[in-house]
Amino acid sequence: MAVVVASAPGKVLLTGGYLILERPNAGIVLSTNARFYAIIKPIHQDLKSDSLLWSWTDVKLTSPQLSRQTEYKMDLANPFVEQAVQYAVAAAHTILVKSSQKDLLHKRILQGLDITILGSNDFYSYRNQIEARGLPLTPEALASLPPFSPITFNSDANGANCKPEVAKTGLGSSAAMTTAVVAALLQYLGVVKLPLSSNTLLRVESEDLDLVHMVAQSAHCIAQGKVGSGFDVSSAVYGSQRYVRFSPGVLSSAQVAANCLSSQEVITDVLKGKWDHEKAKFPLPPLMTLVLGEPGNGGSSTPSMVGAVKKWQASEPQKSQETWKRLLDANSLLERQLNALSMLAEEQWETYKYVLNSCSNLHSEKWKEHASDGRKEAVVKALLGARDSIINIRCHMRKMGDEAGVPIEPESQTKLLDATMNTEGVLLAGVPGAGGFDAIFAVTLRESTNKVTNMWSSRGVMSLLVREDPRGVSIENKDPRIRGISSGISAVHI
């Protein structure tokens, strides 16, 4: 039986919050080891004798974590179903209908599509379950949960109208899920040949990946009802990167799809469009660790915060432009310092390793003590430059939030981030993306991660098991549910 398993990572937007909405502003987005998985297999092993036409197919969507299963018939001539399935199938038909692969496409369609979707635990908050068990808010407690744990349900006083409680951690679950489904379907239908997870390094150039990207962006745009910056889908496809958004007009047909265009017409137009986004691989420098914490403050609405900032821009154009310019300069400086550190690691590894080992056990004001020669001084200077940059970024983000009347870095987050920055071995700390109450991040040096997670735990912050994984979308060898904890698969929290 043909089975395809694809996975796509969640993201953390390190720099570029709000700025990334407008070209040519860049953002640094890190992909993570929290991944969404899409498993595709046929529903029917044998083709029915009356299946001479393939304008219809059976589809079964299963989400074990949400205890949901849906079965329906999908009209391929004019489908109105979950967008990732709809546009992936439309793209397959557009590309393969006149090729030698069309027979395989027809067969797979006629056999139906059995689709199972799984998301790593880190996409969701399990704080309530851990506290209900009487466990401490530690990474060890979070790791004790089974992989792909069910999401708890809310209900009214009568126990009726249950619905999934989807308290998210801000890792871009919808983009990762959409990308995984699109990639799995395009691979299953013979349209692309994506790399295996074991062979996926930092490759960001591939026509097959580009196709997944275009289809996933289209599906995600229609599903959320607007054209976003697209950094979350791009990182789900290509991995950690420096990203500049595409011109929104490339998805103009997708914006009006619900009104007058079929999915076939939309995807044909999208594939012919001029995609002018920019992406360049950008992992963290070596010996640095990305750490995320969930403060437990209930999360924030990114669309409403973005709307408030845009309203402020319109009402205060000069003041907002000045703030954006300072924020852009601070973002660019942090990017340059991280680039410098990556180059220093490549050119003088032993010196770089020595300095990071030494600084990982010290507060930042003592890092200069290890700049005993020119080479070590260059590493320390770049480290301190990166710290200064994130401090400036936070300052300008707070100012923007104050002016726009939204809590981009709320006071509770400010106190927590200041304490984090004052912990030994911490290079960076901030609120990712649009900010608010969703999560906080830190970048630590070498072995200092435990100092941060212990400090967060003492303040009621749940340290997630998320780490940077620069890989983008890939094909997995097996169903992730049958792998052991020590297998190295990201979904089970290495």
From TrEMBL:
The lineage of its organism: Eukaryota, Viridiplantae, Streptophyta, Embryophyta, Tracheophyta. It comes from the Eukaryota. Its EC number is 2.7.4.2. Gene3D superfamilies: 3.30.230.10, GHMP kinase, C-terminal domain (3.30.70.890). This is phosphomevalonate kinase. Keywords: ATP-binding, Kinase, Lipid biosynthesis, Lipid metabolism, Nucleotide-binding, Steroid biosynthesis, Steroid metabolism, Transferase. Pathway: Isoprenoid biosynthesis; isopentenyl diphosphate biosynthesis via mevalonate pathway; isopentenyl diphosphate from (R)-mevalonate: step 2/3. One of its GO terms (molecular function) is phosphomevalonate kinase activity. GO terms for biological process: farnesyl diphosphate biosynthetic process, mevalonate pathway; isopentenyl diphosphate biosynthetic process, mevalonate pathway; steroid biosynthetic process. Coiled coil: none annotated. Belongs to the GHMP kinase family. Mevalonate kinase subfamily. One of its GO terms (cellular component) is peroxisome. The keyword Ribonucleoprotein does not apply. Residues 168-239 form the GHMP kinase N-terminal domain. InterPro entries: Erg8, GHMP_kinase_C_sf, GHMP_kinase_N_dom, Phosphomevalonate_kinase, Ribosomal_Su5_D2-typ_SF, Ribsml_uS5_D2-typ_fold_subgr.
